């Protein structure tokens, strides 16, 4: 009931799966969107019992609502591993993910961390980095769209925290459930793949607000308004790949670790922050909408104020990132906040784990990020510190495993 089947999107995906967002280079959509809850700190009814099927035509973790917790991780094949070892690993991982998403214990390396918890909307999403194909003897099957991302002005990327042969996105509405899945899968990879990097993030917890609402990022901005919606006529064309054959129905994931310069940002008055973004901070309404506008009021990039100047500044984030400013380029953003303590200068090491799914990075992330890097006023408050690009295969049928079309097709 969560994945897009052959006849369309599920009710769960339609009601909450798309999320929304203020834009690619900086702000992704960490969304609420499950059943309404009563005000107060209590968890939403059924949070622990909510289950997202692992098997299906699409991998879970793309159109579903972003969960409260996420682990992103990359692995490299072990030095002696090749195609057969990769097949073994993906079979093990797929079988384990299927069990864990049903709330069942793992077959191997079960550690009882989440023994008394339900599935908590757990999803496990797999992606393949460009370097995997040579190591597994599959260079002739590497998609052209998996070419390395170009360098962007202002990037300060740490290679040790980017790329990788295999990528995992593990999301759940309970922190122990998410960590349990990561730990089990990591131990099952022993001898076949070695960890390259890991990052942990968080979003809004179901039941934390009186009604389902678009979440906020660490800058305090409503974050996720303009994401594509599954019922948009061109949603699939923007998000899901059509080829090569083994990838048809899959997607491409761009992952960026984006540190927010929160001390600098929080020293700006609220009206200045709003001009940088192009939306009111209180409710996410566009500055072009007038007093009665709400978050979903369409942005009017031509609107002017009483003094004749543009209501949304030329370098406002929503203007620079808008599809209308980028030849229609768009992607499905599924971002999470992160906080990793303090840097040496005392500033917070915190920001956004940006994940964006798209049919083709050359028509999605790349043109938008180029424009953002050149002219987005928000860029002064951000540092892009890690990056990765991965081909995300379609889902696995019952009895199959993710990547089977690539390895056995």
From TrEMBL:
Transmembrane segments: none annotated. Residues 59-202 form the Dyp-type peroxidase N-terminal domain. Residues 269-283 have a biased composition (Basic and acidic residues). It is found in: Cell envelope. The keyword Metal-binding applies. Its main location: other. Its cofactor is heme b. Residues 215-395 form the Dyp-type peroxidase C-terminal domain. Keywords: Heme, Iron, Lyase, Metal-binding, Oxidoreductase, Peroxidase, Signal. It catalyses: heme b + 2 H(+) = protoporphyrin IX + Fe(2+). Its EC number is 1.11.1.-. Residues 269-299 are annotated as: Disordered. Binds 1 heme b (iron(II)-protoporphyrin IX) group non-covalently per subunit. InterPro entries: Dimeric_a/b-barrel, Dyp_perox_C, Dyp_perox_N, Dyp_peroxidase, EfeB/EfeN, TAT_signal. The keyword Iron applies. Involved in the recovery of exogenous heme iron. Extracts iron from heme while preserving the protoporphyrin ring intact. PANTHER family: DEFERROCHELATASE (PTHR30521:SF4), DEFERROCHELATASE/PEROXIDASE (PTHR30521). This is Deferrochelatase. It comes from Kitasatospora terrestris.
């Amino acid at each position: 009931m969560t994945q897009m089947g052959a006849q369309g999107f599920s009710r769960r995906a339609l009601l909450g799966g798309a999320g929304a967002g203020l834009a690619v280079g900086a702000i992704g959509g960490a969304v609420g969107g499950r059943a309404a809850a009563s005000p107060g700190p209590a968890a939403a009814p059924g949070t622990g019992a909510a289950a997202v099927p692992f098997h299906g035509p699409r991998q879970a973790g793309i159109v579903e609502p972003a969960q409260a917790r996420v682990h992103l991780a990359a692995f490299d094949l072990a030095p002696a591993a090749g195609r057969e070892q990769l097949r073994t690993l993906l079979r093990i991982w797929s079988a384990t993910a299927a069990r864990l998403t049903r709330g069942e214990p793992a077959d191997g390396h079960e550690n009882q961390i989440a023994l008394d918890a339900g599935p908590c909307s757990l999803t496990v999403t797999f992606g393949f980095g460009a370097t995997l194909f040579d190591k597994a003897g599959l260079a002739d099957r590497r998609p052209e769209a998996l070419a390395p991302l170009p360098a962007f002005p202002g990037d300060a990327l740490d290679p040790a925290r980017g790329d990788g042969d295999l990528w995992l996105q593990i999301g759940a509405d309970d922190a122990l459930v998410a960590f349990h899945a990561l730990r089990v899968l990591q131990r099952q990879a022993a001898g076949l793949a070695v960890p390259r990097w890991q990052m942990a993030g968080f979003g809004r917890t179901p039941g934390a607000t009186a009604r389902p609402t678009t979440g906020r990022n660490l800058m305090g901005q409503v974050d996720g308004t303009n994401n594509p919606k599954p019922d948009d006529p061109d949603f699939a064309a923007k998000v899901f790949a059509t080829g090569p054959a083994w990838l048809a129905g899959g997607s491409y994931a761009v992952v960026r670790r984006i540190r927010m310069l929160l001390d600098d940002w929080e020293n700006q008055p609220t009206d200045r922050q709003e001009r940088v973004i192009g939306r009111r901070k209180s409710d996410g309404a566009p500055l072009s909408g007038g007093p009665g506008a709400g978050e979903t009021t369409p942005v009017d990039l031509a609107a002017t104020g009483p003094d004749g100047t543009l209501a949304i500044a030329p370098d406002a984030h929503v203007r620079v990132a808008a599809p209308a400013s980028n030849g229609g380029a768009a992607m499905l953003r599924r971002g999470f906040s992160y906080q990793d303590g303090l840097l040496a200068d005392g500033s917070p090491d915190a920001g956004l784990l940006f994940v964006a799914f798209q049919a083709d990075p050359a028509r999605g992330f790349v043109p938008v990020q180029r424009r953002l890097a050149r002219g987005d006023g928000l860029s002064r408050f951000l540092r892009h510190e890690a990056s990765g690009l991965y081909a995300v295969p379609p889902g696995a049928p019952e009895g199959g495993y993710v990547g089977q079309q690539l390895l056995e097709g």
